[in-house]
Each structure stands twice: as C-alpha cells, then as structure tokens.
C-alpha cells in the first residue's frame, strides 16, 4: 500500500505522515495533532473524505486498504 499523493504533497504541512510494514500488511498513519481531535472521515466508493474544523480534503483510497479510521487527530489507513 502506498501513501496517497494528497497526503504526501500539500494537505499535510502541519501533520506527520508515517507508513509502517508488518507481517499482516502495511499501515499509514497521519497525525494532525490535538487541534484535529474532532476530525470526521468518510469513505465513498474509492474516495476518502476528511473534514477538520475549517479544512477539508479528499484522496483516493490506496489499493489494498481495508479500513480507514480517525481517532484523536490521527487518521489510520490499514490493509
């Protein structure tokens, strides 16, 4: 699974993007910090929509992704 371009370029200047590999698949985490604690995430078809206070963006769901969650300002995409 690859980090989507929108998460690498432009939308995450104030966030930390990490990708980890494990035996059971890879995980992408994006830490937007405590200011994004009320972040909302929705998956529509192959698009992920992220809304935080006055910001919103969307990106293509990475191939192989099976779960997208948001908790306390951290977006997690798992295989």
Automatic annotation (TrEMBL):
Residues 1-20 are annotated as: Disordered. It holds the Pfam family DUF7127. It comes from the Archaea. Residues 1-16 have a biased composition (Basic and acidic residues). This is Hsp20/alpha crystallin family protein.
């Amino acid at each position: 699974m690859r980090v989507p371009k929108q998460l690498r370029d432009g939308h995450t200047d104030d966030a930390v993007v990490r990708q980890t590999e494990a035996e059971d698949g890879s995980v992408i985490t994006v830490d937007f910090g405590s200011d994004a604690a009320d972040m909302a995430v929705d998956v529509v078809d192959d698009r992920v929509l992220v809304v935080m206070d006055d910001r919103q963006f969307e990106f293509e769901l990475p191939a192989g992704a099976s779960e997208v969650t948001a908790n306390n300002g951290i977006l997690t995409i798992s295989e």
